[in-house]
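Box 3.1 A note on notation
Throughout this textbook, protein chains are presented in two layers. The first layer is the amino acid sequence; the second is a token string describing backbone geometry. Keep the layers aligned when reading.
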Amino acid sequence: MTRALYSLLVWLMQPLVRRKLARRGAAEPLYLQAVEERFGHYDSAPCSASDGLVWVHAVSLGETRTAALLIARLRQRLPGMRLLLTHGTATGLAQGATLLQPGDIQTWQPWDTPGAVRRFLAHFKPRIGILMETEIWPNLVAACAQRGVPLVLANARMSEKSQRQAQRLAWLSRPAFGALAAVWAQTQADAQRLTQLGATVQGVFGNLKFDAAPNADQLATGRAWRGRAGRPVVMFASSREGEEAALLQVLRSFRPLAPVINAQGAINSVASGIQWLIVPRHPQRFDEVAALIGQHGFVVSRRSAWGDGPPATGEGPEADAIWLGDSLGEMALYYGLADVALLGGSFEPLGGQNLIEAAACACPVVMGPHTFNFADAAELAEAAGAALRVPSLPQAVAAAQSLANDPPARATMARAATGFSGDHRGALEKTASAVLALLDQQGVDAL
């Protein structure tokens, strides 16, 4: 099989892509914005090679937040830099819009047909392309190599699961990884797996996320709200589909020891002195999770309705509710508010979410068995004493409750989290220097 067959398949899939965008656009209107850009058709005037666009591709929200660190550092070291920022999801696009400066361009990632990719590169003429973490598209990589556009994979990670999937399509993946100008891996394990797939790994720089400083104002606000909560707060951070229902089922299994006249009061007392906070990973699920909380018999109190803070214990109908973090860009506030966090995505076989931001906020973490997407960070956090691993969600609830009610143990884990976070910084400067070195080399080659 050859890339020509792959190209035919992705070309035939275009009607399905359009249908999927229309379906997702019903819930998230940004998916209906500039749909033709995804197929390499643009309303703006073509760029000139002299514009020297630095192209960064960050597919979704998490990658865009990581890319923000690199973009800011490149602007410092490359004054006057013009940014071309591409995404594949609505959350990435919305977050990326906050990073733009005059002269920058934001557009959708082109669908990986030869024609769309060719039109994208001809229209924008980027000087360099930086793919964040995992995004490899065979035709895009090949077209950049043909046009002499150095395309790199920064903050690169490769789980064992993803490696196995790529190896099954080695006829397609190996040429794509091999054609990258450079790969800068997060860990030695990532580097080894990427090398086995044909990539030229030129450095193991660590994880850029360690260089992110949490929003100090949000963190301070969250901690102030925690002090007013009247009881320990346990957050389910970046929870995924299926996990919220499992948590709520565990909480429903608790029963008050004495009769309670008010039935709603009885079901809300299951927290056993804990204030539970659920922050879903995907914003399009906020309403769904709110409904789920109600279906399990709990009152819900939504962050979007709080104003100056959550309701205090014993005040109003929402005083004993489960809190729902239904806002974007406030994870530092939520980590400041929480005494302990359960790691979303780790209690179902989803690979886990990144716990680095929790560590930077000095929030102890309880994680489940499934952390293969961030295996190195999870193992290092556990070894440092910043996180606990348990085999199931019921055991995680028990561990979080125990930890939340043990201030000395919490303080020990919080100090360990702060140390763990500080010990692994430095990837940002290494990555920015590597990008600038490539740009310098490109300038020499052009002479």
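Residues 216-423 form a domain with the Rossmann fold fold (CATH 3.40.50.2000). The longest helix spans residues 427-446.
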